[in-house]
Structures are given as C-alpha cells and as structure tokens.
## 1
Amino acid sequence: MRPSADAVVIGGGVVGAAIAYNLLKSGMKSVVLCEKSTFASGSTGRCGAGVREQWGAEHNIRLAKASIDMFEHLAEELGYDQDIEFKQKGYLILAHTEKEWDQFKKNVELQHRLGVNSMLLTPEEAKDIVPALNTEGMLGATYNSRDGHANPFHTTRAFLQAARRLGGDICFFTEVTAIELEAGKVKRVRTSRGDISSPVLVNAAGPWAAVVAKMVGVDLPVYTQRHQILVTEPVGWFLDPMVMSFSIGIYCQQTPHGSVVMGIGDPDEPKGYDTGHSWQFLREMASIVCRLLPVLRDVRVVRQWSGLYTMTPDAHPILGKVPGVDGYYQAVGFSGHGFMLAPVVGRLLSEMILGKQPFIDISGLDLGRFERGEYMVEPSVV
Amino acid sequence: MSKRDEDIIVCRCEDVTLADIRKAIGEGATTMDEIKRITRAGMGPCQGRTCRLLVAAELSRYLGKPLEQVMPSTYRPPVKAVKLGDLADMDADPEEVRED
C-alpha cells in the first residue's frame, strides 16, 4: 500500500468500486481503496440484484435511469472478460390494494415525465408477461421493460479490475481504524496495514458508513436493518421480469443463471447488524411466493442468507460533501437500492470530487437536507 | 493453464473446471469466498459438498499454507435443498412440531 494518495475510498462494495474507477478514469493519478474484507462482502454481495427505473420519487427515477443507461454498456466500458449478467426483462410491480393502485398511477405519470416508458397493465396483460402469475385479488400492475438484473459480484469486480488497470491501489483485508483531520481538512487515514496521507476521503462503507463518518465527527441519521433472501436451484426459463409487490412486501426474479432469487420485507425486523437467517423467513417466503407463482412449489431452495439495508429517514442516499470537513465525501444510506445506483453515483461523486458540475443535479441529496427539513418521499420500497 | 485443467470438473453442480479455479486464483483470489463469487463453485444444489475441499486444496497449494489456514467460505442453510411447496405447507413452528 502506498504511503500517500490523491484520494482514499473506504469500501470495496460496488459503490466504492465505482467511485474509485471513475476518479481514475477522470484523470486522478493515485487512488487507494481500503476494504476490511474482500470485494462485495457487505451489502453488495447480499443484495437482490435488481435494477429498476420504476421509482416513485424524482431523484430515484433520474438516478436509476442514468444508471441503467450505464449498465447497458458497462462490461464493455470496463473491459471485463466475464459476464456481468445484465438482463433487461423488466420489472412487473403488482397492485393489490386501491391505495397502491392510485399511487402507481401517480408513479407512472411521474416516470413518463422523466422519460421512463413504464406502463399500467390489467391483470390479464400482466399474465401475458408472466403466464405463471396468480392474478387473484390483483387490481393491476406496472411494467417497464428496461428494468432488470445484474450480477453484483461481477459488476463490483469489473469496476475494481478496471480501477487496478488504471493504476488504482485496491487493498483488501485493510481496515480503516482512524481518520486524522488538520484544521478541518482530511489529512491522513490510518489502516490495519499502515497510514496513507490523502487530502480526499470517500466514505462508501455501506452498513458501516456511520462508523466511518464518526471518525471525522459527522453524525449520520441512518440505521441498519437485516433483510433476508433466498435462492433456488436453477430451473428452466419461466420468469422474464422481476415480480414485485410493495403491499405484500415481496420481490422475486429468475437470474440469467436460471436460479430464482427472492426476498420479503419484515416490518417487525429490529434495527441492528444481525446478518443471521431464520426458519420463519423460509416458511413465510415459501408460503407467499407459492401463492403468487404456484409453479415454484416444486423448486428447491438451496441457500438462504441476509444482508443489511442502510436506511435514511427518506429512503434516499446521502451524497456529497459535508460543510466543515474539507476533503470528506460520502455516498451512503442507499436504503436497499445501492447496487442499481452505483454506476451513476460513481460518476457523480467523481465529478464532485474533481470540482466539476455533476451531470445530474444532486444538490438536494446532501446531508444538510434533514436539518433543512427537506425530506423526500419514496413510496416504492420493499 | 493446461488443456487438462479445462477437462477437470471441480464443482459439478455449476460446471466449474480446475482451469476456472486457477484463473480466479491467478487473478488475485486468496479466499474460498472470492473463488465462490467469481466462479460459482459451491453455489449449486449440493452447496459445495463435493468441491469445497478441492477448492481449498488448490488454494492451499497456491498460497503455500496448510489446508486449515485457508479461510473457509460461509456455510448457509438449508442443509439439504428443500422444495418451496414443502416449506409452504408447514403450518407450525418447529418447536410445536417437536411437542406433538
């Protein structure tokens, strides 16, 4: 590890990897990425792997749309020799309540205004897209064909390999233990493998973002919460889009590999760092998904795990600098959708750090919004 | 990488060859988890029962460390693959079942 750098990025998940790559691509000479474990070991490698433009709030829609634009050419841009398994077979989002259906009509209107070609479908039309779907009790659905899936491990690794080729120092098993400031400016980062002097520090530590922020005296209004998930054996192709319902709290998608990944949100899940797994989840997940997609009854679960959402008060990430700590930047609090936003956030953060005008206005996503009372509302999360 | 390595299947659930494992190691993987994430070895229906030791042995050889010092990957439930339908049809807590 080098003793000094132009920037140190904390976190070897997809967000940190994308930021490090973009800084190097934009001409920064010396970038060190510190990861306490190895690539995609925190929230990235545990996520549901979905990417969607169908959000209910303007910032999320703009960011996700730009991110999907980038995903479409990502493997090529990064020169990755394996497949990042990017698939665009849509998201089908189901409405089972009047309240939900009314919200979806508003969402689609907003999405159209921002250039997303989502559609409102009848239950019959939804069944044309997913013949295996049980539409009983369904009022309708929204669908957007550009949404889909990518492999979080390979996407992260593709960014890291490209960063390495551009001269980046990617340090695994290197834990940041302290950050030294001098006259309100970032000065030095202490790690388990030595110190690095750097005028720029980027906090992309996912669930540990608040711990890192504390090291520079910044309080983040975030909390972490376990979300459980499972994957089945690979089966013949039967499910094109991600099927999702906010009122039932489920998402389920067949990956290009053939396996089916699914999760449910548990409103009673306590806050904290537990990443264990429960028998109750398996049963509840199975009972919900077998009602929705009965064909899955004969498919075997091979593995269950969990990961952490890092929630902000308005389910939007916190991006950019913090007044009073020069050189400190953060890309944190993704609230369960960091993977899909990573490509665009990598570009935006590098633009901010290099003093350029970010290509999308994200000034409203700073930490200060909570003090100003400028909360956003995102109605569409599982 | 020899032609022979491409013919040796290490993970039969996911069709991962010795060549795939060696490529991942050659590109910097030093742990079982990294190899799993890169190649899918151990992610199939048998959850690594066949390949786990083979991958560990390969890493141990490459790193020049005894097998017990190779960082193992995480073991995750269920122990055996279970049909979603069977799980859905269970309507009691395991504790309650035991009491019956």
Note: Chain B has a mean pLDDT of 89.
## 2
Amino acid sequence: MLKKILLYFAMPLVVVLPLVAEFDTDELPATLRPRVEKFLEAETAEARSTLAQFSDAELEKISQAFKKSHSTSEQRLFWLSEEFYRRNAERVAQERIYYLYAAVLAAVAVLLIFAIFTYRRARQLAKSTAPVPPPAPPQEISQPAKKSQQKPQRRGTKRR
Amino acid sequence: MAFVAIAVSTYAALLAVPADAVQGNVQRIFYFHVPLAWVSFLAFIGGTVSGVLYLITRNLAHDVRAVAFVKTGWAFTSTVLVTGPLWARPVWGVFWNWGDERLLSFFVMWLLYSAYLLLRATIADRQKAARIGAVLSILALANAVLVVTAIYIWKTVSHPGPVLFRAEGTGLANPAMRLAFWSMFCSFMLLFIVIFLAQLTLEEVEVKDHA
C-alpha cells in the first residue's frame, strides 16, 4: 500500500522535475555542447561578444532545445520575447534602409545640382561671348563695272 | 558615359554586393562616401600642385587650373559631408560627433576650401587672388593630410582603422565588395574629370573676358 502511495506521488514528479530543471546541454549535439557550456559560464561582456560566433543553424538548435525544456506557458513567453525582438529588428532594418537611400539620393542630388550650375554658367558665358557677326558692308549704288575690269588676270602676265 | 558608369556601380553597391555582417544594409553608404572622399582629396592635391606651380611661374594658366580643381573638389567634399551624417545616425546614434578628430579635421578642410572660393570671388585683382589662393590651398592640403592621418594619430573612436588596407581577416574581405568599391571610385573619378574639364573651360573663358 505504501509503495502504491509513493508511486502515486512520484509519477507527477517524474514529469514535472525535468521541466523545472535548468537547461540541460546534453540535449545538444556533441559538437555544439562545449561551446554552449562555455557561453553559459562566461562573463556577461564576453558572452555578448561571442554571440555572433554561432551560426543560424546552431542558434536554431539551441533555442529549440531550450524551448523543449520549458512548459507551454513559458514557451508562450518566449514567443512574446521573440516577437518583441523581431519587431525591433524590423524597425532598425527599415530605418537603416531609409538612411541608405537618403544618403544615395543626397549624394546624387549634390553632384547633379553642381553639374547643372556648371552647365548653366557655360550656357550664359557662351551666349555673352558668342562672336557677333560683322556688320554687312554698306551697299553702294554704283554703275556696274566694266567687264574688262572684272576679268581675272592671266597667269604670267605682269602688271605695270 | 560617367552617368552610365555611376548607374552600373550603384546597382552593384545597392543590390549585387552582399550586406555587411554587422551593420547590415546601411553599410552600403560606404561605397559612395569613401570614393567621393578620395576623389575630393585627389582634386585638392591637383589644386595645390597647380597653386604651387603658379607661385613658381606666375603663369595664370596654372591658377585657372587650380580654381577648377578646388571648385569641383569642393562639390565632392560637400557630398561627403552629406552622406557621412546619414551613415552615422543609424550606426552611431548621432548625426555628428564633435569628439571625432577625423570628422572635425574634415569639416575644417571644407571650411578652408569654402574660404578659398569666397576669397576668389571677392578679390578683383586676378594676380593677387591667385597668390592668396595658392597659399591658402597649401594650408588646406596640410589639413587634408591631417584628415587622412587622424585615425593613426588619435586612434579615433567613431572612425575605424583603414578599411581597404588593413590586417588580414578584417575590412573588405569579400572580392565582390572590393570590386564594387573600385568600380564606384572609377565612376566618380570619371564624373569628376567631366565636371573639372567643364569648369576649366569656364574659368579660361572668364579670364579671357577680364583680359
């Protein structure tokens, strides 16, 4: 009877104890385990600086193993945390894209404005310095010249 | 041709090249900001060399070249001053950091060249303006040297060490990123040459008019 009573209380413990226990790195692949253990034991600043060393696939494995070791309600809290970081990351990414395009447009605008000013000045100068056609010689009303005077001189003839 | 080259390089910088691992997409401003700064430095070197040649020979043709160099270089420097804060805001959290020696010396350089152009516009005597301009451009180039070496002298916090020529494993390691950078530099150089030649022609015409 006593054994049955003990078993009755022990069964829920078997289920609950793993859930309240700390994250067990044994769940992770052997290659990843030592790095995660080192990360967990490191100082805050050092741990933060090593965040980028984990690949996307490794991060997914770690987070999945961590989630499995927690209750459903705690997993929901992780969702909220993930949603918060996702929104924040999206906002930062959008802001950075905005600044990127603003910078590119500004660079192009400055150079374009300068080029336009140069072009306008060139046109103004071209107009002001355009060669003025020489005034047409006054037409004299005179009698038509004699044909003999207009004849071109032959080669070899000497003018006296 | 220069605009086509810039369009192709812009496509490479904004879409073809992978994003930076730490800064993300905003790092792509680098492909505009740094080449523009390099081109403006080359312009100011050209301006100072022409100014020194004028001081030696007193030939106004050198001065005309110096003015064209500085005018075009000033436009490129202004572009650097616009793109820099737009990159700094999302990365540093502020548009401008007065504590950064490189930023400060660059701003002083821009002010010096602005003063150069103002002086040139206000002094009527061409020879006198050329003489003062040449001396000022030598001073401004000395400041430009300070801009380049600021990261070594003061170990500036905001600006990192040299990005292209630094120890292995850092900087632009990706060949596509390097290609995009050099492509952008060549495109801006081409644009600079086009605008510079136009400015040179204008200055020559103005000098002839005054004469």
Note: Chain A is about 70% helix and 0% strand.
## 3
Amino acid sequence: MSNSGELSQRQQAWVLIKDHWDVSALLVLAIAPLGVPALGGALGGQFTTLFIYSILALGLNVMVGYTGLVHLGIAAFFGIGAYVTGILTVPMYPFQIGFLGAAIASIVVAAGIGLALGAPTLRLRGDYLAIVTLGFGEVVKVTLRNLEQITGGMKGLNPVPPPGAGVKLGGLDVGLSFAIDPRWFYYLSLGILAIVVIAMRRLENSRLGRAWMAVREDELAATAMGISATRVKLSAFAMSSAIAGLAGSLYAASLSTTADPNAYDFNRSIMVLCAVILGGLGSIPGTLLGVGILVGFDTVLAPWADSWIQQLDINPTGSSMLSFSGWRLAIFGVALVLVMRLRPEGLVPSRRVAAELHREEEHAAITKGF
Amino acid sequence: MPALPPHLAMISLEFFLQQCLIGVTNGALIALVAMGYSMVYGIIGLINFAHGDLIMLGACLALSLVGASGLVDAGPTATWWGVVLLLLACGLFCGTLNMAVDRFIYKPLRNASKLAPLVSAIGVSFIFMNVGLFWLGPADRSFPELVPPTNLFSGDTLQFTYQDLLVVVVVVLLMVALSVLVRSTRLGRAMRAVSQDPTAAALVGVDVDRVIAATFFIGGALGGAASVIYSLYIKTIGFQMGFQNGLYAFTAAVLGGIGSIPGAVVGGLVIGLVRSLASAYVGERWTGAIVFAILIVILVFRPEGLLGRRTREKV
C-alpha cells in the first residue's frame, strides 16, 4: 500500500484488525471440515453454495459497489459461465476439455459478452443502464430455455464432470473424490473465494480501483482529472461479468449440471444485489456478510423456523401465511426499504461510501436550509 | 375466397390483420400501464419498480369484489355498471396505495442518492408480491368472464369482441382525460412545472410535495383501471403477473420517450404489435427476448425514445 504512511495510528490498527478478521475466518473455515463431520455431508454442499454466491456477489460489487452502476442482470453472466462450462465438458459435446479449461473459457466468454453489452450501453444514464441489464438478463434466460438443441432446454446440460475427472494423483482418482466427498468442492470453492477476496483487496487500492471509485463519486470531476469514464466503467462491467462467469462455472461443476435456465433469472440477480446492498456497497466484508445473511436465511433460518412452527401445530390447513417462508419476499422487501432509509451504506460499510453518502445528506441539508 | 391450407394460413391477409387487431388491443392495455411509469418518472425520475405489482394488487381487489358482489350472475346492464364501479374502486385503491407508498417510503429519500429510491421500489415490489401471494395463493386464478366474447364483426374471418372493445374504449377515454388534465388544468400546469424544475416551481409557489403526491395518485389510479381491464381481458391473474407486465409497459414507456404521454401510447401500441406479430410469426416463446432486445437497441441508438425530445416537456 503506497499511502499507508498517511493513515493515522488508529486507522492502521483498524486495518490490521480487519486483516486478522479475514485471515482468522479463513483459518476457521479451512480447519472446520476436520472437526465438523457434517461438512462431509449435505452441510458441506451448502457451504460450497455459500462460497460460490460470495464469489458472485464480490463480482457484482465491482460494478454496483465500486463503480456505482446498478446491475440487475448479474445472474445472466452467472448462467453464461455455467452453460459455457456445461458445453465444454458434458459427454454430449465433442469438446470435453475438463474443468480448468472450461472455467477459463467461462471467464473469457462472460467478460467478452459483458464488453459487447457494455460498450454501446454504458454511456446511458444510470437507471436506463439498470433496465438494459435487466432486459439482457431476460433475453439470456429466454434464449437458454429455447435453444434446446444447444442448451438442453429446461433439462439443462448434464452430467458436468467434476474437476480432475480421470486424473490420478498418487493412486487417488481426483474426479471420483470430488464426486463422492463434498469436502473437495468445499476446499476448491473456499480457495477460489480466498483468491477473489485477495484480488479484490489489491484492486481496491490499485490505479484502476481508485478510478472506479472516482467515477462513482463524481464522474465529471474524474473526467476532468484525465480518467476516461467510459473505459473505466467498461472495465468494471467486464470484471463483474468475468467473476460472475467464474462463479457460474464453479456452480455447474459443483452441481454436476447446469441446472435449468430458471436458476439464472431476475430473482437470482436481485437476491445477489440485495446481499451487496444489505452488507455494504463497495465493502468486501460487508458483501460476504450480506451473502451469509441471505443464504443463511434460505438454508438455515427458514427451514428451522418452518419446522418449529409446524411443531407448534397452529397451522392445520397449511396456509402460507402461517409459515415462516411464506413471508420471505416481504421480509426481504422490508429489509431493503429499511436499509435504504436508515443505513444506506449497509451493515459493514466501506468508509469511503459512508463518508460519501453522509456528505450528500449534509450537502442537502445545507441547501435546504437556504 | 377458398380456404388456404394450414401451412399457408399464416401468410393470409386475414391472419395478419387479426394479429394486428390483437396487437392494438394488447398495446392499448400496455399503454395504460406505461402512462403510470411515465408520469412518475417524468416528475421525480424514479423507475417505479412496484408499479406492475401495484396492478397485481388491483387485480386481487377486483377478483375479491367480483366474488363478493355476485356480479357474475347479474344481468347485462348491471354487469356494465358493475364494470364501471370496479374501475372506480380499483382506481381509488391503487391510487391511494401508490400515494401512501410515496409518502412513507420515497418522500424521505428525496435528497438521498439516486440508488436509494430505486432499491426501495424493488423492496416495495417484493412486499406487494408477498401480499398478493397471501391474497391469491401461489397458483394462478381465473377471473370470471363478465363481458361476453361476442364478435362484433360478422363472419369468422376477423375477431373483435366486446372485450376488445372495452379495452380500447376505456384506454382512449382515460388517455383523453389525462391529456386534458395535464394540458389545461392548474394541477397539470403545476405538474409540468415540477417536472421541468422542482426548485423553480417551488419558488413560484407550487406546492411540490402535493403535486408529486397527486402524480403518484393519478399514476396509481391509471394502474388500478389497467388492473380491471387486464383481469377482464386476459382472465388469468397470479401474484407474479406484475413483473412481466411491468417490464413490457416500462419498455413501452422508454420506447415512446419516457415522460411523454403520447409517447407512452405510441410505445404501447408498438410493443403490443411486436408482441402479437412475434408470437404469430416467430413463436410465442421468443416474444420476451424480442421485446427486450428491441428495448436495448432503442436505448442504445435513441435513448430519448420515439417521441421524446432531449429538452422535452415531461409528465
């Protein structure tokens, strides 16, 4: 970090604590499978999903958090990654190049499509851009569903072979290990998540990362300082798409199918966006926490609360009003409204975003006073 | 004229005209929803994500009212009056609800960053959907056929029923009423002033908050009318109907030039025609992709829309 000398001691201590928080979380997650046997079962798969969504959300955070562009179609790029991986690996096609090559191809294709969509549309106003991404998400979903000869329609593409299929490592069949023991995917996705987190942290303080934030804070001022706003936005779009493509590739491999196209619809996009906004725009720990809360809600809290309500035996007719998961949409809706009202910078805010948001409020208060 | 074999029926003139008629009727409905988007966007620059779901709630109310009033078994005259009353009730309900949402959710965010109201609108849309889920249940519900599907044309070649007529008549009446309101009343003048420059409007004595509230009410009331027409015409409603319909209508509003009322009408008709012709000639399952591809192309090449001007008169 070039500017660490300018930070005060307290800030340095805070940075240090934050670093340790991340490292200790990583250590706990890395050791956990040794002490928690459940991670070798279904729980391990749930954690893998959590890590994959975390990667996806960190990708979205580049565009929404750092650069301040609303993106409502991130699931489309997630789906593109999954389907590219599917096409390049399933036995139905002659390619069968294996996971590593397919993952790289997914990243490249997703980034390329992101560039192709972004190049003509990024000069649009923010809210129009949001609608373009939304429309693109629908186009991708409909296309995946309808091009049955290529994508398998609603059946999806399967089986996507596990990473390292057919590779023997010291008498151990790697692909088979991935297939039978969830802990292999647990470690693979945790490792990739760690790499993405490190890359994001480096990016935040890089020339490009600072340019993203400069464009978010004041596009005109950034342009006046010699930043090409279009290019900077385009790079953010490509980066978001690339990371989403990587997450999609991992998703398809971990499920051993591309799932059906409805897995990549608007709802998925909006849930990931909720995670980023809830946790804190432009904040890596915030984004991770946001994903944790949302995935935790769906996979842990909702089933637990539902079974608890069922035990109370107050819902003999099975009405959705008396089940916890029936309130899911309303709970998310209220959470979004409340966060925007009370804490627009999110639960674990990035210092810069918080300062920016509150400066705007102060500014508004001043102008209103006149 | 001898009947064409089935594989050539698609290229007959009658078939084409029939698709156009369906497109115009659909388009009129889309235009009615699009006007609600356009008005709100014109005045505070908010893409009201919850508008489609507001209409879904209007349809819920319409279904409940029809069920409670026993309108299905009433005679034809009573049915027509019943439809008028439904339009009024749902218009009032959706207008009030829209105004309340603005008062309690969007109004406190007027000075916040632009993202805040947009995200809040997504949140409101979720809440509405959940209410609709409780109201209707998870499955789609069929809406009783109040208006007879009697053909107005003689013969079988072209179909234009009372239901189609109802859509067109109601939409044209509401559109004329809205144009008069915006062009020639005090409130309309205030709305145009606020949409051009809220600060300047406030300086000359316009009560900006009240004008915005009125805009939300009118936009919501149009949505309420649209919900009744939709229920009577499409005859199937469900808690997830808002998203898709809202998206088509928003596309229409943008296509015509968001903020402009004639633009919303033109955009609605174009989208309606594209939808029906694409369904007939390309295949229903591609319709959504084609409509949104058009949206993207329009936004790229003519972001101000067909009728919009860069320095346009909004609302």
Note: Residues 12 and 212 of chain A are 24 Å apart (CA to CA).
## 4
Amino acid sequence: MNDLAARFRHGYPGFALEVDVRLPSRGVTAIFGPSGSGKTTLLRLIAGLERAADGYLAVADEVWQDANSFVPTHARPLGYVFQDARLFPHLDVRRNLDYGLRRIPPSSRRVALDDVIDLLGIGPLMDRKPGRLSGGERQRVAIARALVVSPRLLLMDEPLAALDQARKQEVLPYLERLHDTLDIPVLYVSHAIDEVARLADHMVVLDGGRVVAQGSTSDLMARTDLPLSGDDGAGALIEASVAGHDETYQLTDVVFAGGRLSLPRQARAVGQRVRVRILARDVSLTLAAQTGTSIINILPARVTGITAAGPSQSVVSLDLGGTTLLARVTRKSVDALGLKPGLAVHAQIKGVALVK
Amino acid sequence: MLNAANLAAILLTVKLASVVTLLLLLIGTPIAWWLANTRSWLKAPVEAIVALPIVLPPSVLGFYLLVAMGPHGPVGQFTQALGLGTLPFTFTGLVVASVFYSLPFVVQPIQNAFAAIGPGLLEAAATLRARPWDRFFTVALPLARPGFVTAAVLGFAHTVGEFGVVLMVGGNIPGQTRVVSVQIYDHVEALEYGQAHELAIVLMGFSFVTLFLLYAFNRRATMLSA
C-alpha cells in the first residue's frame, strides 16, 4: 500500500528512459547500473528536478505527478543528497542545516537536529564554512542537511562516488547507522556493487534507461543473467546468524541454511543476524572434499547452472541448502571436472566478508 | 577651491550617477537573471541589444534617443500624452539616456555572477523546501554579491564618465544637465584651462580610486571563495 510507484517515459537526444517500477517503502533500495544507464535521471524525476512529459509518481498514496498535476520539488516531502554535496558556500554548517529546518512547519519535524548531528558526527564542524571542510565531512553535512527536513523519502545520488577510498570508509559507517536508526525509506543510486551489498535491502538494476531486474539484493546478487555477475566484485550475499566464537584462533562462526562459515573474530553477539558476502572469485570447486588444505571453509554444494563470463571464465551457480553461491572458475576447469547442473561438489571458500 | 559652478556640476553628476545606478540595478537584475537562465532563442538578440552601447559611438545612441524622446518620437508622444512634456534637455531625459548607455556595464557582471552559481545550489535549495523567490533571495542574490558590487561601481563610474550622450540629449543647462564632463568641455572652449584642469583632476582621481577599490575587492572576493 504505502510504497512508491513510478512510471516515466523521458528522453532527450541520444537517451531514453522508460521505467515502470514499484518500490518498497521500507529500508534501502539501491538503483544500480553502469554510467549512463539513467540512474541519476530516475532519481531527479522522482525529486521533480526534471519533469517527464509522460509520467506517474505516487509516494505513500500521495500523487506527486500524473497527467494533470505536478508537485514542484519544494513541495515534495523528500530529502536529496547530491553526489557533489552542494552545500551553500556562503553559509556555515549550522546555517546550512537550519536552511531546510526553518522551512518546514514545526508539526512535521520528526527528526531531531541534535540526533542528526550526533548520528553523523558533525558537532565539531558547526561553525565552519563548507570551503573549510574535507570531502568526507562535506558529504556528512549534506546527508545531515537532507535529514533534518524529516523527509518521508530520502534520495541519495552516489553520495560516495566523489570520495577516495579512505573517505568512503569514513562515511559508510554513518550510512549504515542511518539505515539502522531511522525509519526513512532510502533510494540509493550507485554503480559500486560493494556499497550496494553493504547498504541495500532491495535493488533495481537499470541498463540503457530500462529496468532489467528488481528484487531483494541477495536474490539479485546470486543471479548470473545480470551484468552484475561479470563484475570483479560479483558475489553472493548470505543472511546468517552468529553461532559462536573461537577465542583461541580469534574466529567467529556463523550459520546459515547451507552450513557453517568461519571468519575473523567479529564483535557480534551470539545469535545476532549478519550479512556476509562471498565473492565469486574467492570460491573454487572440488569434486571430493579436500583434506590437507589451508582453506577452512569447505561446504558441500550442488551445481545449478553454468554461465560463460568472458572468453576463458565461467560463473557457476551453486545451491547450498537453498542459498545460492557463485563460483568463478575457468572454462577449462568446467570441462576437466565435468561440471554440470545437478552435480555434487565441494565449494572451497577463500574469503568471507562481513558486510552488515 | 572649487567655484560654485564647478561644484554644482559635480553635485549634479553625483546625483545623476546615483539615480541611474539605482535604476540600473532594479532593471538590470531581472534582465541578467533571465539571460543567465533562459534557453530561449531570444537570448542572443537581447544580449546583443544590451551590449550595443559598448560599441556604438555615444552620438549615435544619443541621436536616436533624442529623436525618440522628441515631440514627434514615440516616447515623446507618450510623455506628452501623460502631460509630462518632452524629455530632451531635462534631468529626467538625461537619466533615461544614461540608463540605456550604462546598461551593459550593469547587466553583464550580474549575468556572469548568476551564471557562475549554476543550477546546482538552487536545486539543492528546492529540495530543502525553498520556493523560487525564496531561492533567488537566499541563494542566488548573496552568492552573486561580488557581481552586484562590480555592476554598481561600473554603472556609476560609466555614468559619471559619459559625454556624447549627454551633449546630444541633455545639452548644457546649468543645474539641469550640465554635468562635469560637459563643464570641462565648456571651460576648454572658453580657454579656461585652469578651471578645466580642476574638474579633470577630480574626475581622474575619482576614476582611479573607484577602479582600484573595485579590483581590490574582487581580488579579496575571489580569494575568499577559493
């Protein structure tokens, strides 16, 4: 009922966007796709920063655009985080935050300014002008500024893309805290699969201005028919729970329907839900369970499909008690091992990353 | 040190330039905003018209303004119908002519300042609930401030420095239209070189100080925004 329905046909010379999607009103939905696939345009259409001649948009049963009406951006209860922060250079951080806050009626203030300042750790920056902030600080202020208007929908356009790796690592934990503490649905545009894996519950994959897939992040990550699987960062997402810790070797065990995995010691309580990511390139296959190997995560699996990924590589889909895992192997190995759907194998997992 | 006639010319010039600058900021700002944001095909022709006074000899502009505001011109007919008489050889006529003459010097810096802000920050303001007028006054205007300072200074200084248009449209009526540049011309015609020098040195000093302060301000503004 309370979801977001968007249908747009929008084009300019050399590009056409044609989408018709329904998105959940909870959690983080990633809009994923390569550069030029129309991700940002879709977000701008939803914000009303661009106007499709032919469009329908309803958010939580409120129509923002249809054939006869168009709610202008300033009247839509949304927050928008731009890739390039777009802080007002003539105002200090405090007044940047106040800008939106002052323009919403007190009755619709549901997010407390102090909470947002704490959440994003920008307390010490309040009296600085944007020109005196680092890239990561600027982006945190921009996120805070979008939150203090108590948006009913938060739109984020690649908020980390302009940052280097170190700054990304600085901002990412704040985005995760956002997800965990605020009950605001987020549309998160990204072309970075690792960000999506960490943050998103749901995803929409765009290519060439069209939606090529949508669904839960873990389902889509496990599919081999999408452009995602050819990527070096392709891999399965597995929802698991913490089973216990091995204090001697400083390992944490997690269990899921397909078995048990060990990863470096995590500060998580036993029983806690976690999300782990296993890259396809970190999984190799054997026909018999190996002994005398340094790899500690070896799980029995069944081959469900094999997809070519480039001239020499294949991506093998595996079923582990209902969970899908991907393995990237050479085409030569596929033939040498006689891999085919239905075959029982052992997956040797070289790396498991906790993403949430 | 200045005699009464010279002082009167200076006061008249300052009054003219002040009125003209104020009017130009009011008229020039919407024109500059439109030019900075429009995608209409009219943009280029309007820009060309605004810029005409830069390249035209002041006598050409003055001539057409004189004809237009004269008793048989369209503007003259209109002002007569309103019972205002005709504008040439009056202070009001001088103001109107100066507004045209100095228009590009006010519009162009403001237009450049608006264009430099770009749509990004205004979009950000829109996502923070600011309506169009609100965005203009709280984002565009403050950020374009260096452009407004440049525009006001150039508009003022350029009006002080005009001669040809004044002579064509205003003539040489003491206290009405006899501004400093015309007064200097009169002194030279009458071979009163000492008197001419007095005024000329004032104008020279004024122009230098004004431009010096303007460039110093712009340098500071550039460094602050960097």
Note: The interface with chain A takes residues 120-121, 123-132, 134, 138-139, 142-143, 225-226 of chain B (CB under 8 Å).
